[in-house]
Amino acid sequence: MSVSAADEARVIAAVPTGLFINGSWREAASGRTVAIEDPSTGQTLVEVADGAAVDGFAALEAAAGAQGAWAATPPRERGEILRRAFQMITGRLADLALLMTLEMGKPLADSEAEITYAAEFFRWFSEEAVRIPGDYRPAPAGGGRVVVMRQPVGPVLLITPWNFPMAMATRKIGPAIAAGCTMVLKPAELTPLCALALAEILTEAGLPPGVLNIVVTTDASGTTGPLIADGRLRKLSFTGSTTVGKSLVKQSADRLLRLSMELGGNAPFVVCADADLDAAVDGAMVAKMRNGGEACTAANRFYVHRSLVEEFSSRLTERMTALRVGRGTDEGVEVGPLVSAKQHSKVVELVDDALGHGARIEAGSIPEEGRGHFYPPTVVTAVPDEARLLSEEVFGPVAPIVAFDTDDEAVAAANATELGLVAYLYTSDLNRALRLSERLVAGMVGLNQGVVSNPAAPFGGVKESGYGREGGREGIEEYLEVKYLAIKLAD
Ligand code: ADP
Question: Which of 2, 202, 368, 382 is the most buried (most CB within 10 A)?
């Protein structure tokens, strides 16, 4: 059933619109606000406070002030806050999903899936909070003991993107809370509403003032730059583009900040001759179309064995072009609009470039009326090597397909990128599966499955996809510092 206008208005009216600093909501010091747009209509949903450097400093001051007491808060208490927040998010699934669809555009079912995924990070890290490990070792020469402890790194700056407005936030907030770090979150200015709703939930769940502070801003570098230069900040965790990530790494070098960088992807999707074709097409649909293609894990290039390429292409085309595109709140819609006009022109540009190089396309359809940034699900075949579609992240519903003949050729093509987040591999042969998984240069490999995201697993990339891991046992390590205590024992 489509959502009523009254429901939309109720959900928007309930969302806080201020900056969240030291446990309370306030306007930006400048009094400025930013309009949050519904990407499927181009209309303003609501205005929220538009912070700047001065607000960022207030947020960091609150975080630094709360750090000592928060680090001393028993792990069980920190974990219980996360656990309560997990339950509250799950309990409010429908409203949060609607909020997400309104600000970001994805269909309600996708929003629900993201919110469930986002909440799971809180559940996972509620369990990790009480399992922070230590170690006690005899020194090899005798006489001494080595004690290894882990302590919270200190106040952290979290910068998140617009494509998963809630999961990218909980994936950082969860381990920071579990580890005992306080934080300043700067959500993407296109989609800040879910993060603001999260602050309210965490407050209700018992999070003390100052532990989480949120500053929305249209001046990202002007607001975060001074924080990165400030001695009170001890870590930066960023999810976003490789270009911005590199600039943040450079900025933080002067202070040798601890960093976690989840950057762009250019995922290959390799279908070997012995693959189960039904499974490969199903997996391709998920790997490509989860979040409408607006995911750093999205399959960006399909390499299919020549013996299967025709069948695979025609089946994928049939599935892709049949998808119903429209406003995410409408019943039966499977693909929403792209998030912005800028994102839309980037997709148009990359497909035009491929066409200019002789590629062929088959595209589905988009709604006829409306001002949304809609792009039809599209399959591109006969893609030549030089097409930008194979080297740049398309971040939209476009699937380029290339044929290969040998495993070596597939691996070489898959690895021919400076990025290395995830690779997908379809084969029924165990030996080939393991051999090729080892040779694919990526932080993650989806073997016979089109989705790798899982709160219990270490998400992250290699090469220019960044460093650091989120989720899994590894996720909390990013927020902990190792301290070694050298103990001399008397005889
Ligand atoms: P995308 O291409 O997905 O929009 P970006 O890297 O531009 O990725 O954005 C990811 C996040 O980084 C957003 O919160 C955005 O506001 C923020 N951001 C963009 N530029 C900068 C910058 N120069 N300094 C700090 N944060 C930035």
Answer: 202
Q: E strands, 263-410, where?
A: 267-271, 299-305, 360-363, 378-381, 398-404
pLDDT digits (tens, 9 = 90+) for 175-213: 999 999 999 999 999 999 999 999 999 999 999 999 999
Q: Write the DSSP symbol of residue 459.
A: B
Residue among 240, 262, 164, 290 at smallest CA distance from 459: 262
* 239 vs 159: CA distance, rounded Å: 6
Nearby residues of 53 by Cβ (< 8 Å), 6 or more positions away: 219, 222, 223, 225, 226
Q: How many other C-beta atoms lie within 10 A of the C-beta of residue 467?
A: 17
Mutate to test the pocket of ligand 1, among 36, 157, 159, 219 (most ligand atoms within 8 A of CB): 159
What is the SS3 assignment for 284? helix
What is the DSSP code (8-state) at residue 470? Answer: B
229-233-234-238 Cα dihedral, nearest 10 degrees: -80
Which residue's CA is the closest to the ligand 1 atom numbered 7?
Answer: 241
| Stated pTM of the model | 0.97
